[in-house]
Design goal:
Strand order of the largest sheet: 9-8-7-6-10-11-12
Shape: globular
Bound molecules: nicotinamide-adenine-dinucleotide
Low-confidence stretches: 1-9
Order of helices and strands: HHEEEHEHEHHEHEEHEHEEHEHHHH
Distance between the termini: 22 Å
Radius of gyration: 20 Å
Number of helices: 14
Length: 429
């Protein structure tokens, strides 16, 4: 096992569900499969740069609050650092470091020229006004001004952030530079250089990988029974596109509970209902309420955890009845639960593949920005489709060739490409 890097152990998370330890464990397994030297693994397991900044903000009631904002840059061997910014109460340096590492393998896996990074602030955005969130976002980026940039590190949305926060961040960076710098973030509104198709991109990538996995089992999306945990950027878009393709979405949930209908939910109507009811789903007509634990245990063809990490653990793994789990969220299945499910023959589409659609379209947004060209949505979706299907096929081929599960196959591809680049650049003997 790779020695744990020198990150402050500020979270009391038990080792078996600590996201960073889990990420290192998967790296370790890929390293063994690829027969990588211990020294090389040691390099790859440590983030290159870890930044924590203080964000003092004035609350609307006049109080001053100082928040901690993190940015972890894991590896830039293949290109500029790339990764989302998360606003969620559970954000910790270890979690951000794990997510930064996943971004490195994800970008390498889908073949885009980026390294991996992640950022986050431990806040519940629902308890802040829009004005407060704007002050937080602007101050966070001001504090990181020397660490980011279109050729250095390019943030994007993640949990709790969206195009709105990206526009504030792009503006703050641009004001500091003295000219507009749209390439500093992706996932921006179209009015400031965002790409068509970006908003739905992660959900679309989930839909593509699920469609391919079902096809490999001789099934189609039409009438496939699917349950989705999380109804935000990713879960909402995945639900919409899967429903549009004919799948029966039998349940979806948010942090405050979910709704279930054996006949399938009317997803466009549910999206409107959620918008009108402050994202609450419970009460939606012609559906029964369902708790998050019960949603995860529903009999279905595909279960899509699209909310948080560590949702399928040792404690509930025996209740899981899905044939396929598509990890739309990052790290929703713990290491031990992953082993149990794999032994049971459940197909797990790993996060670094299933949710890569977002970073693929972020890359396409960056490419459009650099070339001062703006494509229509059809072109964006087509380019993304090709990259996602290619990555999916490569993972399947690697899995068959090495007789290893899909997650390990995806890691072998991602880690292997970064290790090769490290050697080719002469950075490892
Ligand atoms: P979001 O904030 O838009 O949505 C999160 C959803 O999860 C919300 O519906 C929320 O109510 C729900 N949720 C929160 N806590 C929950 C709980 N305890 N139980 C059930 N549901 C809960 O976030 P998002 O951008 O959709 O991100 C979701 C996941 O996808 C994260 O793991 C993120 O890292 C990953 N991801 C996002 C992107 C992206 O482009 N946004 C890209 C790749 C991966």
């Amino acid at each position: 096992m790779i020695s744990s890097p020198s990150l402050p152990l500020e979270t009391p998370t038990p080792a078996h569900i600590c996201p960073f330890d889990q990420a290192c464990s998967y790296l370790d397994q890929a390293g063994k499969e690829l027969k990588l030297e211990a020294g090389l693994l040691e390099i790859l397991s440590n983030p290159r740069k870890v930044v924590t900044v203080s964000i003092p903000i004035k609350r609307d009631n006049g109080d001053i609050q100082v928040l901690a904002g993190h940015r972890v840059q894991h590896c830039d061997i293949l290109g500029p650092y790339k990764g989302g910014i998360r606003y969620h109460p559970a954000v910790s340096l270890r979690e951000v470091s794990a997510l930064a590492m996943l971004m490195t393998w994800k970008c390498a896996l889908v073949g885009i020229p980026y390294g991996g990074a992640k950022g986050g602030i431990a806040i519940n955005p629902k308890t802040y006004s829009v004005g407060e969130l704007e002050r937080i976002s602007r101050r966070y980026i001001s504090e990181l001004i020397k660490d980011i940039g279109p050729e250095v590190d390019i943030p994007a949305p993640d949990m709790g952030t969206s195009a709105r926060e990206m526009a504030w961040m792009m503006d703050t960076y641009s004001v500091n530079m003295g000219h507009a710098v749209p390439g500093v973030v992706t996932g921006k509104p179209i009015s400031v250089g965002g790409s068509r198709g970006r908003e739905m991109a992660t959900g679309r990538g989930v839909m593509i990988t699920v469609r391919e996995a079902l096809a490999d089992r001789g099934q189609s999306l039409k009438d496939a029974k699917i349950a989705i945990q999380g109804f935000g950027n990713v879960g909402g878009a995945a639900a919409f596109l899967l429903h549009q393709a004919g799948a029966k979405i039998i349940a979806v949930s948010t942090g405050s509970g979910g709704v279930y209908s054996e006949l399938g939910l009317d997803i466009p109507a549910l999206l409107t209902y959620a918008k009108e009811n402050r994202r609450n789903l419970v009460g939606f007509p012609e559906a029964k309420p369902i708790s998050n634990p019960d949603l995860l245990a529903l009999p279905c063809d595909v279960l899509i955890p699209a909310a948080l990490e560590n949702q399928i653990t040792d404690e509930n793994v025996d209740r899981i009845k899905a044939d396929i789990i598509a990890e739309a969220a990052n790290g929703p299945v713990t290491l031990q639960a992953d082993q149990t499910l794999t032994a049971r023959g459940v197909t797990i589409l790993p996060d670094i593949l299933a949710n890569a659609g977002g970073v693929v379209v972020s890359y396409l947004e960056w490419v459009q920005g650099l070339s001062f060209l703006f494509w229509d949505e059809q072109r964006v979706n087509q380019e993304m489709e090709e990259l996602m299907v290619r990555a999916y096929r490569e993972v399947i081929a690697q899995s068959k060739q090495r007789k290893i599960p899909l997650r390990l196959a995806a890691y072998v591809l991602g880690v292997g490409r970064v290790a090769q680049a490290l050697r080719d650049r002469g950075l490892y003997p």
